[in-house]
């Protein structure tokens, strides 16, 4: 499997009592596919997997597969504290015919690189599917270093890595020393740099409610190679990224963004709380300007192309 384009870690809509709204979940997936995203990730942190029971995680993976119905690739998240739970999700992914799995480091345990690699290889054996690694030391407490990458490289299933460390030197390392592992942007405010260093995909929570704008940046950089246009789009996206990352309200902002589009998202599960009125207003203002600016950039580019014909 070649990871190419925008992969959306889909949200999980919740009712006020915390129960999952499965109809709204299906509607979210339909919206994303209609908007042109290139793949769906179910069971990512944006989907609040950490607040779900294992039965819920398995059920939602199956539902995602059923709704997608082969129209775009499905990647199933396997991150868990217990290896047994990660294996359960890997086996589920294989049994339902998912296209790939997302494998991260087990949170809180802080294993050595060797231990973490053996953990990842055990998950690999359970699924025997293409794997996108998920390096997020800010959440997991450890980095997927060179020893880890060399060890898991013994399996051909490790095809890509979502790099979310925020360390630009990691981008350089992966591009230079691990070109056989497809690099995927996992740090939104570094998307332009990832594309400049050869990344062909972007796993972005914001594409839940702004798919066209995220696709526009990917297309400008990864498809057209127009980094002048890419810089302008990135500049328009930057205020959004600041809002999403400030104050630990990433999931809350993503969910409110979805509701701005008329899609039911509901509140996050505890301990998280929904945005207050001021936070909602700030996000709405940023999104309004962003959409208008990116649309103008696209219109300008289209006009130039027509004039050249």
Account of the 3D structure:
With 309 residues, this protein is of the alpha/beta class. It has one domain: Aldolase class I (TIM Barrel), CATH 3.20.20. The chain contains twelve helices and eight strands. Strands 1-2-3-4-5-6-7-8 form an eight-stranded parallel barrel, surrounded by six helices. Helix 2 runs parallel beside helix 3 and helix 4 packs parallel to helix 6. The two termini are 36 Å apart. The mean pLDDT is 96.
Helix content: 40-55%
H/I helix tally: 12
CATH architecture classification name: Alpha-Beta Barrel
Shape: globular
Compute the gyration radius: what is it?
Answer: 19 Å
CATH topology: TIM Barrel
Strand tally is: 8
CATH homologous superfamily identity = Aldolase class I
How many angstroms separate the termini?
Answer: 36 Å
How do the strands line up in the largest sheet?
A: 1-2-3-4-5-6-7-8
* Mean model confidence by pLDDT: 96
Could you give the order of the helices and strands?
Answer: EHEHEHEHEHHEHEHEHHHH
Attribute tags:
309 residues; single chain; 8 strands; eight-stranded parallel barrel; alpha/beta; TIM Barrel
């Amino acid at each position: 499997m070649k990871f190419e384009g925008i992969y959306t870690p889909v949200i999980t809509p919740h009712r006020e009592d915390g129960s999952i709204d499965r109809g709204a979940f299906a509607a979210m997936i339909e919206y994303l596919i209609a908007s042109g995203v290139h793949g769906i990730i179910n069971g990512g942190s944006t989907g609040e997997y950490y607040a779900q029971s294992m039965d819920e995680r398995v059920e939602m993976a199956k539902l995602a597969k059923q709704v997608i119905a082969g129209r775009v690739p499905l990647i199933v998240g396997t991150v868990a504290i217990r290896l047994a739970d990660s294996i359960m999700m890997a086996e589920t992914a294989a049994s339902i015919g998912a296209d790939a799995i997302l494998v991260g480091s087990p949170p809180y345990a802080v294993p050595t690189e060797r231990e973490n690699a053996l953990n990842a290889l055990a998950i690999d054996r359970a699924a025997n599917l293409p794997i996108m690694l998920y390096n997020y030391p800010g959440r997991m407490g450890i980095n997927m270093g060179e020893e880890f990458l060399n060890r898991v490289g013994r399996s051909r299933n490790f095809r890509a890595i979502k790099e979310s460390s925020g360390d630009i030197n990691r981008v350089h390392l992966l591009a230079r020393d691990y070109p056989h592992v497809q690099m995927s942007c996992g740090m939104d405010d570094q998307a332009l740099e990832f594309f400049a260093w050869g990344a062909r995909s972007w796993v972005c929570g914001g594409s839940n409610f702004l798919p066209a704008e995220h696709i526009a940046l990917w297309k400008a950089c990864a498809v057209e190679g127009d980094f002048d246009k890419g810089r302008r789009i990135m500049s328009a996206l930057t205020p959004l990224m600041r809002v999403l990352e400030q104050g630990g309200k990433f999931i809350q902002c993503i969910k409110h963004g979805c509701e701005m589009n008329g899609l039911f998202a509901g509140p996050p599960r505890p301990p998280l709380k929904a945005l207050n009125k001021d936070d909602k207003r700030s996000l709405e203002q940023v999104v309004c300007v962003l959409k208008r600016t990116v649309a103008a950039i696209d219109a300008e580019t289209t006009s130039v192309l027509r004039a050249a014909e």
